[in-house]
Amino acid sequence: MNPTLKTIGQKHFIGLRGSMHHGQMDKIISLWKKFMPNKFKVTSTLNEELIALQDYKDFSNTKLAFDIWACAEVSDLNYIPQGLSGLTISAGEYAIFVLKGMDASALYRQILSEWLPNSGYEVDSRPHFQVMGKKYINNSDKSEEDVYLPIKLKL
């Protein structure tokens, strides 16, 4: 398990936001079903990639609800179509893992139990996100997407 470590600049997203607790996959599916017919309204996209984003109030507390986003990366938030919302995330360091298949929970368990304790890093409070690009195939074991975990050096 060798992630790519990368410092990214500030990013802007436009999409739909929802709230969920861990294990509520139906909320994610519902959010994407609502977003996809509206994606064409987002005119300032930087690329064709889709972004799944999670904004945790406290990542270590799995009982708390957190915000989820179905969105696209955009150049700015100057125009947000009616019915959609905008979000800006601050610059920072991320560990980028490749998820093969559809079991993000298994990948996160492996990251948190194997990679993170030996990395010299801890999870930062910025949003987590997944980039679903050309290799992403919905509901396929052959799918690939990049998982961005916000990190900071342990003190």
Task: Describe what you observe in this structure.
- By secondary structure, the chain is mainly beta.
- Helices cover 15% and strands 40% of the residues.
- The chain has helices at 25-35, 104-115, and strands at residues 4-8, 11-20, 50-55, 66-74, 85-89, 92-100, 121-123, 128-132, 144-153.
- Strands 1, 2, 3, 4, 5, 6, 7, 8 and 9 form a 9-stranded antiparallel β-sheet that branches.
- The model has no long low-confidence stretch (mean pLDDT 96).
Mean pLDDT: 96
Give me the strand/helix succession. EEHEEEEHEEE
Q: Specify the oligomeric state.
A: single chain
Number of DSSP helical runs = 2
Helix/strand-derived category reads mainly beta
Helical proportion, percent range: 10-25%
Large-scale geometry: globular
Termini separation? 23 Å
Beta strands, count: 9
Q: Uncertain spans, ≥5 residues at pLDDT below 50?
A: none
Biggest sheet character: 9 strands, antiparallel
Sheet-strand content, in percent, reads 35-45%
Question: Radius of gyration from the CA trace?
Answer: 15 Å
